[in-house]
């Protein structure tokens, strides 16, 4: 083998060694950054926000059916209009919360009965409380015959059980650092009383604001 070939192999070996060192350096740097972020996360101890449903006013809760004896949801309709007051408190002392998107809607017997109301993008500072009072509604939403029967029974009782829910994405903010997005689910079960405005049952309501002060379940 000529001296020229030996020199060429020696250059290749040095190049490979240099690439290995560069790769190892980048890997160590990434690991250190991840360790620092993890330690900061542990020290700050982020806590999920606390949601409470303060009150609710049921304006419309009207069921109708063209074929009550049919098990099919076709022909069974529910129209709902309800205003709720939700508060959220950030218990963290060093971490802010960015609500990138948050949809509020109502469900009844596991069926979504209103369209989602989009809460405007918001930032919640340390130990800060935010208040939202959206009006959520659904027009002629198909429901099963079982749900229709349950609604008719609650018409007689003068109260109904509705779950007010919120779903969206949040980020944590520490100084100038902002985390990735996390999914948030909020569930606020609510017993809501109503007053009938005459002999037309649920379809003719006198709006009644019900103070709930119900703590919601939050999953992040």
From TrEMBL:
<dbReference type="GO" id="GO:0005886">
    <property type="term" value="C:plasma membrane"/>
</dbReference>
<feature type="transmembrane region" description="Helical">
    <location>
        <begin position="21"/>
        <end position="44"/>
    </location>
</feature>
<keyword id="KW-1133">Transmembrane helix</keyword>
<dbReference type="InterPro" id="IPR044839">
    <property type="entry name" value="NDR1-like"/>
</dbReference>
<dbReference type="GO" id="GO:0098542">
    <property type="term" value="P:defense response to other organism"/>
</dbReference>
<keyword id="KW-0472">Membrane</keyword>
<protein>
    <recommendedName>
        <fullName>Late embryogenesis abundant protein LEA-2 subgroup domain-containing protein</fullName>
    </recommendedName>
</protein>
<keyword id="KW-0812">Transmembrane</keyword>
<dbReference type="GO" id="GO:0009506">
    <property type="term" value="C:plasmodesma"/>
</dbReference>
